[in-house]
Write a structure and sequence with these properties.
InterPro entries: CB (IPR044068), DNA_brk_join_enz (IPR011010), Integrase-like_cat_sf (IPR013762), Integrase_catalytic (IPR002104), Integrase_recombinase_N (IPR010998), Phage_Integrase-like_Recomb (IPR052925). The protein is mainly alpha-helical and 323 residues long. It contains 15 helices and five strands. The protein folds into two domains: 91 residues, Orthogonal Bundle (DNA polymerase, domain 1), CATH 1.10.150; 154 residues, Intergrase catalytic core (hpI Integrase, Chain A, Orthogonal Bundle). Helix 3 runs parallel beside helix 5, helix 6 runs antiparallel to helix 7 and helix 7 packs across helix 11.
Length: 323
């Protein structure tokens, strides 16, 4: 790999790179298309999968084809008028409601964490180190994921050396990159210590018990309690979350890893956070993105956009009295 290719690869998020590679393979191998493509061939490809793939998936395939042509020095066939018109027709003839993960309500979070705490206490009494580790890890995963509204890939990429946590005070988390960080500038997130359901104490309990000083915060555990060196795979979080909830007696079919993010947004909106504060805390860049995560049954009277007094951590610290 040349230096240019190495830096080009580093400039694209890993998930995006994998998705684009799969899209190109689908166009060439599965459908039998040829590259470089023409606008007509791309239009025929869209028609072939118009009733089989979602509109968002088709758009991703177009983005992958566009990137391939641009980086290879060829004209972008996805900009052809016939492609845009076909895509518009697909949207009209195959309308589909966008699927969203159900928001995890606070009571279900509390039920799951309460169950994990009970299991941890029992495991400690009988000397079951593997179960104790798993309970501490899962509690920290749920609480940090919920109260910071993290995406699954952000949770899996958290690193111990990039987190500063002080019991009873709060925690500071540095993310070198995230979905909205197009320029890879990194961002620093903060969360306060809470009187209960505390993400800070859960993090400290987990990392101290596991003896973590560097590397991924959330790692795979085998049945004997042996820790893996790599972080959890984001694709594994849906199954892990549902497993935790089901064992805690919470119906989990409608929940996914995004339910933590939506759950926090729904709770914050219901608790009177204004939209600007919520967007700044969670990291949304535009109002349209934020509104997708807020339960439409809520009253929006308390969501008038106004300046946020103090830091986001100070605002969330009000939970200490509300919970």
């Amino acid at each position: 790999m040349s230096d240019i290719e190495r830096y080009l690869q580093a400039g694209t998020r890993e998930n995006t790179r994998r998705s684009y590679q799969a899209a190109i393979e689908h166009f060439e191998v599965i459908w039998g298309g040829f590259l470089p493509a023409t606008g007509d061939s791309v239009a025929r490809y869209l028609v072939a999968y118009a009733d089989k793939l979602s509109l968002n998936t088709l758009k991703l395939r177009l983005a992958a084809l566009a990137q391939w042509h641009v980086t290879q020095g060829f004209p972008d066939p996805t900009k052809a008028p016939v492609v845009r018109q076909v895509l518009k027709g697909i949207r009209a003839l195959h309308p589909a409601r966008e699927k969203q993960a159900a928001p995890l309500p606070l009571q279900h979070l509390e039920q799951a964490v309460g169950w994990l705490d009970g299991e941890a206490a029992s495991a400690s009494e009988r000397g079951d180190a593997a179960t104790l580790l798993r309970c501490r890890r899962d509690a920290a995963l749920l609480l940090i994921g919920f109260w910071r509204g993290f995406r699954s890939d952000e949770l899996c990429r958290l690193e111990v050396e990039r987190i500063q946590a002080v019991a009873g005070v709060g925690m500071e988390i540095h993310l070198p990159r995230s979905k909205g960080d197009r320029d890879f500038l990194g961002t620093t997130c903060r969360a306060p210590a809470l009187k209960r359901l505390c993400p800070v104490q859960a993090y400290l309990d987990w990392t101290e018990l596991a003896g973590l000083a560097r590397g991924p915060v959330f790692r795979r555990l085998d049945r004997w309690g042996n820790l893996g060196a790599d972080g959890l795979n984001p694709n594994s979080l849906i199954a892990l979350l549902r497993q935790i909830l089901e064992r805690a007696g919470v119906p989990a079919e409608s929940y996914s890893s995004h339910s933590l993010r939506r759950g926090f947004a729904t709770w914050a909106a219901a608790s009177g956070w204004d939209l600007k504060s919520l967007m700044g805390y969670v990291g949304w860049k535009d109002m349209k993105s934020a509104m997708r995560y807020i339960d439409p049954t809520l009253s929006f009277g308390g969501l008038a956009v106004r300046p946020l007094p103090g830091s986001d951590a100070a605002t969330l610290a009000k939970l200490s009295d509300e919970l």
